[in-house]
Design a protein that fits this description.
Number of strands: 26
CATH topology of the largest domain: outer membrane lipoprotein receptor (LolB), chain A
Oligomer: single chain
Low-confidence stretches: 1-20
CATH superfamily of the largest domain: Lipoprotein localisation LolA/LolB/LppX
Largest sheet: 13 strands, antiparallel
Number of helices: 11
Structural class: alpha+beta
Distance between the termini: 101 Å
Mean pLDDT: 92
Radius of gyration: 28 Å
CATH architecture of the largest domain: Clam
Strand content: 35-45%
CATH class of the largest domain: Mainly Beta
Strand order of the largest sheet: 6-5-4-3-2-1-13-12-11-10-9-8-7
Shape: elongated
């Protein structure tokens, strides 16, 4: 071949090379992930994925201590069915507590569904209930917390991939699906997906990052899929599942939401708004009221120049409604102290509202660091009252016991020692009325009262003269009822 021909061939090759579109970091990221899972063509052909296995659920916000992860539920009969093409999902599992659970030791079956933008749960009787906006958003993100579904979603031209970055040996990219779900995926040097995370809002914790990590990849019908999946909220592990069987394109049945919940019906266009808080009043002594009306209650106590509130449960909205009722009952006296019986999330969702109100938080000594951390956590995704109105935190702690007293009222706070539900539990005793305020230890009429014996032991050890038990769940009961159920 002469020199002129060689030059012509080289020039032609340059022209072809110059016309080829360079692969962007975003394209390379998705291509590598797709190749690691079995190739884009194979991924696009998938219609359904079924994951079966077992694992563990942990008790976020409900454990013995604020930072503990000792309480576990054994998960059996786990089955996750994903209709990949239609963005539907159904998760079934049975949870059995491996600890002294206040609802009893019996297994609990859970069914969680998603039909595109409609998230719902199905109870034991087969009735479906649509979730509220925040829970629905989390459920929609959860659908994309599997690498197969997420990589498949990037095929849609409306999906975007951006902000590819290298962090050590790991690459990360931010992905927005066509439906608006925003997640971050991490892959290793070979493109294997390591984790998928998304931002969320938690009523107690504020801004959080929910992450699913993947491991133990295995061959499944021409794909490589993770058999070990682990979920976290920030750094706290909330669940672990090990897949014993994975099936591609098996029949999954109809995963659609019930007709009454679907978005194509007028009543299903948006998630249900939460019901307004209902606060009822029952006076149990001079200057002492139970503020009930829902599943969780508070007790209001009047001193000569201020008010004390025992527990601010369920939500910020309920707590603000309780504040309003307290000011209506006793106008002119400030809400000065919030006694938190224990750190569990369902009993402290109004904690930050109390801080914003200027109330001193009274808690068992083991909760101090946790209260301080809750007060500092950012709430930017959904700013709460404390985020909008900064207030200095004041904390008072109770070791074995502490007295609050003036010439009109005495309240004794005691550590419920050895409580199997929470290491940092308090109970409140009003000597004048012989009333004991407690929660999650005894409820009259409950089918199970696994902590009643411990409560009775604490009452007797302190030689308290109690006529009535005021539980923050359920109805007021005579002391004789506690003594009856606490017997071995």
């Amino acid at each position: 071949m002469n020199t002129r021909v060689l030059i012509s061939v080289f020039a032609a090759s340059l022209t072809v090379a110059g016309c080829a579109q360079p692969t962007t970091p975003e394209q390379q990221f998705i291509n590598d992930a797709a190749d690691a899972l079995g190739g884009r063509t194979r991924i696009q052909a998938v219609k359904t994925l079924t994951i079966e296995g077992e694992g563990t659920n942990y008790n976020l916000g409900q454990d013995m201590k604020p930072d503990a992860s000792t309480q576990q539920f054994a998960v059996t009969g786990y089955r996750r069915q994903i209709d990949v093409a239609n963005s539907r999902q159904r998760v079934e599992q049975t949870r059995t507590p491996k600890f002294a659970y206040f609802q009893g030791p019996q297994p609990q079956k859970q069914i969680q569904g998603l039909d595109d933008t409609v998230a719902f749960n199905v109870n034991a009787a087969g009735a479906a209930t649509r979730l509220g906006p925040a829970a629905e958003l989390d459920r929609r993100h959860d659908l994309y917390h599997h690498p197969l579904k997420l990589v498949r979603a990037t095929v849609d031209p409306k999906a975007t991939v951006g902000n590819v970055r290298q962090i050590g040996t790991v690459r990360q990219a931010d992905i927005t699906t066509a439906g608006g779900a925003k997640v971050t995926m991490s892959i290793d040097a070979a493109g294997v997906p390591l984790s998928i995370s998304s931002k969320s809002y938690h009523a107690n914790l504020g801004d959080v990052v929910i992450t699913t990590t993947f491991g133990e990849y295995q061959e499944v019908s021409g794909l490589k899929l993770p058999a070990q999946l682990t979920g976290k909220v920030d750094d706290f592990t909330t669940w672990e599942i090990h897949a014993s069987k994975q099936t591609v394109d098996a029949e999954v049945g109809d995963l659609a939401a019930p007709a009454s919940l679907r978005a194509d019906k007028p009543e299903g266009l948006s998630p249900p708004a939460p019901a307004p808080p209902n606060v009822t009043v029952e006076q149990i002594g001079k200057g002492v009221w139970v503020l009930a009306g829902q599943s969780h209650h508070s007790v209001l106590v009047e001193f000569s120049d201020h008010l004390m509130l025992v527990d601010a449960p369920q939500s910020e909205a309920r707590t603000l409604a309780v504040f309003a009722k307290a000011k209506q009952l006793v106008p002119g006296k400030p809400l000065q102290q919030l006694v938190t019986t224990h750190h569990h999330f369902d009993h402290t969702a109004g904690l930050r509202a109390a801080i914003a109100e200027g109330m001193t938080v009274v808690t068992q000594s083991g909760n101090r660091a946790w209260v301080e951390a809750m007060a500092k956590r950012p709430h930017t995704l959904q700013p709460d009252v404390l985020a909008k109105k900064e207030q200095r935190l004041v904390v008072e702690t109770v070791d074995a016991g502490r007295e609050y007293k003036d010439h009109t009222m005495t309240v004794m706070l005691y550590h419920v020692e050895g409580n199997p539900h929470s290491d940092t539990m308090l109970m409140a005793y009003i000597p004048r009325d012989r009333v004991l305020v407690e929660v999650d230890a005894f409820a009259a009429g409950s089918a199970v009262n696994p902590y009643a014996a411990n409560l009775l032991e604490n009452i007797q050890k302190r030689k308290l003269r109690v006529d009535r038990i005021v539980p923050l769940h359920g109805a007021i009961a005579p002391m004789a009822e506690l003594e009856k159920v606490a017997k071995p």
